[in-house]
Amino acid sequence: MSIPLIPAYRFGETYESLDVTEITNFRSGDPLARVGSVNAGVIRRDLRRIDAAFTEFQKSSVGQMLAICARAADLFMQGDVPVSEGALQSPQDYVEMLSATGGLPHALVRGNMEKIAHVLREMPTVLKGLTRGLDVEQLQEGVWQQDGLTLSYAPSTTHLGVVLPSNSPGVNSLWLPAVALRVPVLLKPGREDPWTPWRIINALLAAGCPGSAFGFYPTDHEGADVVSSSCKRVILFGDAKTVERHTANPNVSVHGPGYSKVILGADEAENWESHIDLMADSVVHNGGRSCVNASTIVVPAHGRDVARRLAERLAEVKPTSQDDPAAQLAAFLNLQVADAIEAMLNQGLGTPGAEDVSEPLRGSRVVDCDGLRYLLPTVVYCEKLDHPLAKSEYLFPYVSVVEIAQDEVLDWIGPTLVGTVISSDETFRRASAACADIDRLNLGAVPTPTVQWDQPHEGNLFEWLYHRRAIQVVS
Amino acid sequence: MPEALDQHVREMMAWHFGPDTGCPFWLAWAGKQGWDPREEVQGFDDLARFPNFDGEWLRFEQPEQWVPQAFVGRPYNIFETGGTTGMPKQRIGWDDYKVDYESFGDTLSDDEFPRGRNWLMMGPTGPRRLRLSIEHLANYRGGSCYFVDLDPRWVKRLIVNGDLDQAKAYMEHVIDQAVMILEHRDVAAVFTTPRLLESLGEKVSIPDAGIKGVFCGGTEMSPQNVRFLVEEVLEGRVAFKPVYGNTLMGLAHSKPLVAQDNFSVTYYAPQPRAVTRVVDPNRTDQVVDYDTWGRVELTTMTKEFFMPCFLERDEAIRRGPADGYAWDGVGEVRPFGASETKIVEGVY
Question: What is the pTM (predicted TM-score) of this model?
Answer without folding.
Answer: 0.89
